[in-house]
Each structure stands twice: as structure tokens, then as C-alpha cells.
Design a protein that fits this description.
alpha/beta, binds zinc ion, binds pyridoxal-5'-phosphate, Rossmann fold, 13 helices, 376 residues
Length: 376
């Protein structure tokens, strides 16, 4: 029963078919029966590969890893309430995207892929580039022209070929689709193997809580690579009886680009086309998320919520979190603003887990600009 399945027409393909979408052009999901041996897991190295039997890579020889994962889950106080924060900004390339990249690039190696393409606002591109460098796979990354200099340097120094695309994030996505007609698409939104990596977020959180599920998780969302991965992970643990509930998922979007919010709030079946404005949290500014309907469905199923935050709230939240000694990038600070909003109506004993998704050192120009703007 381990296979790729189309979300729309239910066509089935082998996990060894090097494809990233269905013949009907729809997205694919992975059906896979994970195995968790808690005694074995406990004895292994503290990396995300400790859940080895829950990861659909056949041969250990194909694993591409920097011993990433098992990031600290640390208590941070917000307005008098302790929130557990997963420090995923401490990954080797500085963002949680390494979770997905490690498994996706391992799978690419298993498939004998020699070259990949990927589009990104920076962090996914950096992650795929680093893992391809280790795997010896040629890597082509497409980014919007205005991508942060730190991320652009990172991608190129890992040895990937960088293609800057003028225009919007959507223009970049369209250019890469053309390239992906000929080359394997290591996409963090299309390729279902990426989510087999980000699902380890849920495994780690539950293990760190003594194999218990939190009540609520608060996550930033653009194309949903972390949110959908976490949703898969919690469901897998529930299915085998390790946890007894799925946490409520609170998704945070920037008000200036919030298609999922409008779909959720309007109770719509399809994510609507929206008008967007530039946002301080550029990493979650995805106007037309490929898996949008799937994300909204996941949030609904957990009785969760989609909340939006304004640019000035994000800036304020970033300054506040830095003053506590944590250096995260602007996109990641949208989540902090979301936490503060959620706390206005949370209940006192709710166990809440959230995340630092990306490191502040990647976005020095923006951090300097924020500093020079003075008080916000
Ligand atoms: C990619 C990214 C996000 C959002 O992830 P999506 O897959 O677009 O939902 C959030 N924060 C940072 C730092 C990121 O790199
Ligand atoms: Zn199909």
C-alpha cells in the first residue's frame, strides 16, 4: 500500500516513479504505512532520521543527511503565558526547510536523478542546494529578483545555479514549471516527498512532550510545507495509537497576502484569487498556493483557525522576540504576532507549541532597516 496517489482523480503511481504531479496535472500525496518502535527510536542519535521506519526511503545508502533535526523545544513566555517553541531556525541551512530537503534529496538520489530544479523565496532553495551539494546532484534554483542577499549568497556558495526571475513570486513559479517539464522538480509545494520530511516536526514535538500531543500548534503558512507535513505527522501517530488526539492547527498569514484566510473565513470550497500587497514577511507571501484547498481542509478538520497579522504587528513582534535573545527572520516573526493574537482568547491550561522557522542572520539588510526605522 506504499504509493503515490492523485488527490483529484485518485490515479496511483509507484513511489519509484520519478514524477511530482499526476497525468491529470493535479497534486500527488503519498500513502505509506509508517512504523514506530519507541524503544529503538529512543536509543538512536538525536536527528530526524531516528524515525527511520516512518520515512519512505528504501536504502540507507541513499540517505543525505547533516544529522539535522531534534531541534530544542524551549519554553518562551509571552504576556505571562509559557509557549513551547521549536527552534527550527537552528537547522544546518538556517530554516525548517532542511526537514523536507533531506528526505526529498535522499529520494532523488534513490531515483537516480542527476539534476533538479526548485523555486523559492530563498530558504527552500538554500536547503535543496545544500543537500544536493552533499548528494552530488546538479541543482538549479529560481528565485524572485528581490530575494534576500544572504539567501542568494547561500544558494550560490552551495554550488547551485541561481536564476533570478523578474516580477512576482508567482512569475518565478511559472518559469520553473517550464524548466520542470524536463528536469526533476524538487518542489516544496508540489513534490510529496518534501512533506515526508516536514512531518518529523510532529514526531519530534510529541516525543519531546513524552509522546503526547499538544492542544494547539501555531504555524506560519504560505504554501503549507510545514503545516501539511505536521498534519501528516500527527495523523500518523494517531493512527498507530501513540497519541490520542490531533492538535488544533492555528495557521498564521500576513494580512497583505492571505488567500487561505479568505477561504477559511468565507467557508469557501476553493481558495479565491486575491489582491496582494508587499509584506515584511515575504517568505509566506504565496498568493496562489498549490495545496491551498488541502491546507484549509487540514485546519478545518482540526477545528483550528487561520489568523492574519499586519506588517506593523510583525515588526513589533520581531523586536520583542529579539529582545528576549532570539534572532529570527521577519517571516518567522509573523508567527510570533500570531501567537500574541491567539493568546487573547486561549484558555489558561492550553498546551501551545509554535516554531521559529528561519534564522535572522539570513536577512541582515531587512534587520538593519528595521533597526533604523526606530520604534514601530
Ligand atoms: C518557507 C518558510 C515559511 C512558510 O512555509 P510554507 O511552506 O510556505 O508554508 C515560513 N517561515 C520561513 C522562515 C520559511 O522559510
Ligand atoms: Zn490525477
Amino acid at each position: 500500500m506504499n504509493q503515490l496517489i492523485c488527490r483529484k482523480c485518485k490515479a496511483i503511481y509507484s513511489l519509484d516513479d520519478p514524477r511530482w504531479k499526476c497525468d491529470c496535472d493535479s497534486i500527488l500525496d503519498i500513502e505509506f504505512e509508517p512504523v514506530f518502535d519507541l524503544e529503538k527510536i529512543k536509543k538512536r542519535k538525536p536527528t530526524m532520521w531516528r524515525y527511520r521506519e516512518a520515512i519512505p526511503i528504501q536504502n540507507d545508502a541513499n540517505i543525505i543527511s547533516f544529522d539535522e533535526g531534534v531541534t530544542p523545544l524551549i519554553e518562551v513566555d509571552f504576556d505571562g503565558k509559557p509557549i513551547l517553541i521549536k527552534q527550527d531556525h537552528l537547522f544546518p541551512t538556517g530554516s525548517f526547510k532542511d526537514r523536507g530537503a533531506s528526505i526529498l534529496v535522499s529520494k532523488a538520489k534513490e531515483l537516480g536523478v542527476k539534476e533538479v530544479v526548485e523555486d523559492s523565496s530563498g530558504n527552500a532553495g538554500a536547503a535543496i542546494s545544500a543537500y544536493c551539494a552533499k548528494a552530488g546532484i546538479d541543482c538549479n534554483i529560481f528565485v524572485p529578483e528581490d530575494t534576500a542577499a544572504g539567501k542568494i549568497a547561500q544558494i550560490q556558495l552551495y554550488g547551485a545555479k541561481l536564476n533570478k526571475v523578474p516580477g512576482t513570486r508567482e512569475d518565478t513559479a511559472n518559469v520553473v514549471l517550464k524548466a520542470a517539464e524536463k528536469v526533476y522538480y524538487a518542489s516544496h509545494s508540489w513534490n510529496p516527498f518534501f512533506f515526508q520530511g516536514t512531518k518529523t516536526f510532529a514526531f519530534e514535538v510529541c516525543e519531546q512532550l513524552g509522546w503526547k500531543s499538544p492542544d494547539t500548534i501555531i504555524l506560519p503558512v504560505g504554501s503549507g510545507s510545514l503545516l501539511l507535513g505536521a498534519y501528516i505527522g500527527f495523523n500518523e501517530l494517531l493512527d498507530v495509537g501513540i497519541i490520542d488526539k490531533i492538535p488544533k492547527i492555528i495557521a498564521v498569514q500576513s494580512e497583505n497576502c492571505a488567500p487561505l484566510y479568505w477561504a477559511f473565513r468565507g467557508n469557501l470550497e476553493e481558495v479565491p484569487p486575491i489582491k496582494t500587497k508587499e509584506t515584511f514577511a515575504e517568505g509566506i507571501a504565496i498568493a496562489d498556493p498549490i495545496r491551498g484547498n488541502q491546507i484549509v481542509e487540514a485546519v478545518r478538520k482540526t477545528k483550528g483557525n487561520v489568523i492574519v497579522v499586519k506588517d506593523n504587528e510583525i515588526k513589533k513582534a520581531l523586536k520583542e522576540i529579539c529582545k528576549k535573545g532570539y534572532y529570527i527572520e521577519p517571516t518567522s516573526a509573523a508567527t510570533i504576532a500570531g501567537i500574541k493574537k491567539h493568546l487573547q482568547k486561549s484558555n489558561p491550561d492550553e498546551v501551545i507549541v509554535s516554531v521559529f522557522t528561519g534564522h535572522g542572520l539570513k536577512t541582515t539588510e531587512k534587520m538593519l532597516k528595521l533597526l533604523n526605522e526606530g520604534s514601530v
